[in-house]
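Researcher: Let's continue the batch. This sequence belongs to Helix-turn-helix transcriptional regulator, and it's 110 residues. Same format as the previous ones, please.
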Amino acid sequence: MAEQFYQRLIDKYEPMTEAAFLTLMSVRQPVKSGDLPEKIATLTHGQLQLGLGTLFTNLHAMTHDYLITEHVDADDQHTYEITGSGEAVLAAECRRLALLHQICTDEQVL
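Model: Same format as before. Here are the structure tokens for Helix-turn-helix transcriptional regulator:
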């Protein structure tokens, strides 16, 4: 049953946009909402940025789809963290990207 649930989510999100991928990657450890842009900049070595609208749209959708949990503390600080479902979707996307990378390598594009 869990596999079917995960597969439905994978089918919904795959292929994943860069914004969705970076959003999921950035919340693999709990992170406060205000720290997310810096976390994404660190992940991408400063090469990619997400606009706040894009970032929070992804966070909202992924929270709704149970890929991410959101915790709000007494000071109204929002902290996000990936769920098991989110890890399954992220792993599927990483496998897809690895295949694309292998094709580039095989074709001597890299």
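Researcher: Any comment?
Model: The domain at 2-106 is CATH 1.10.10.10 (Arc Repressor Mutant, subunit A).
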